[in-house]
Amino acid sequence: MKRKLTWAALACAIVLAGCSTPARMEQMQVEASASDRAAFQDSVLRSQIAMRDVTGGKETNPLWISNVGSDEFARALEASLRSAGLLADNRQGSKYLLTAHLLKLDQPLLGASMTVTASVQYSLVDRATGREVLNRTLVTPYTAAFSDALLGNERLKLANEGSIRTNIAALIQALKGVQVSQLSLQGP
Q1: Facing residues of 51 across strands?
Q2: Is the dihedral of CA 11, 12, 15, 18 positive or negative?
Q3: Which pairs count as long-range contacts for 88-93, CB under 8 Å and 24+ apart, including other chains?
Q4: Exposure of 149 by Cβ count < 10 A (0-12 exposed, 13-18 middle, 19+ buried)?
Q5: What is the chain's pLDDT, residue by residue, as a tens digit (188 residues)?
């Protein structure tokens, strides 16, 4: 009888836990505010950034924990840059190439509130000169509270998505700090 109860409890735990699902691109992208778009209106970066490479993501194993895949991260980053008015319409015609490498995604295994911290290294390079305009590692935490989702796997996914979204928002803020004078002073 005790063995049957143990198996029943284990079966219930598995059903309640559910399968892990990957972070969703739509939940990681940043919708730029009007002030963000206005900040780039006269910027040399406006419609001039193309993606070179996005690496470091991990695919989600449904039997383990939610992760952020490189493809989903790349699509979220592109959509965010497009929203801010920074993404070039034509990759070949862009002046700058952006590389993003997801260095680390610190995730808890358990918890009522789950905090995930994303560490992403970004590099923006002038296509014509090959000079690096921006090289920054951004570290951003995001906490999904117990009230956000009952299941731990879902809370972890929400924390993953929030951490990447916050990281992309921090990149957009960092790009606001890139001055035209910095770009023009960097000769060949």
Answers
A1: 98
A2: negative
A3: 88/47, 88/48, 88/49, 88/50, 89/47, 91/50, 91/51
A4: middle
A5: 666 655 544 444 444 455 777 777 788 899 998 988 999 988 999 999 999 999 987 775 665 677 788 899 999 999 999 999 999 988 788 999 999 999 999 988 777 889 999 999 999 999 999 999 999 999 999 999 888 887 878 898 899 999 999 999 999 999 998 865 544 444 44
Using alpha carbons, list the distances in angstroms from residue 48 to 43, 54, 66, 111, 124.
Answer: 10, 17, 33, 42, 11
Whats the size of the chain, residue-wise? Answer: 188
Take residue 123 and report the two structure tokens written for it: 């590099």
**Tokens 């390079």 appear where?**
125
* The token pair that represents 88 in the structure block: 């070039």
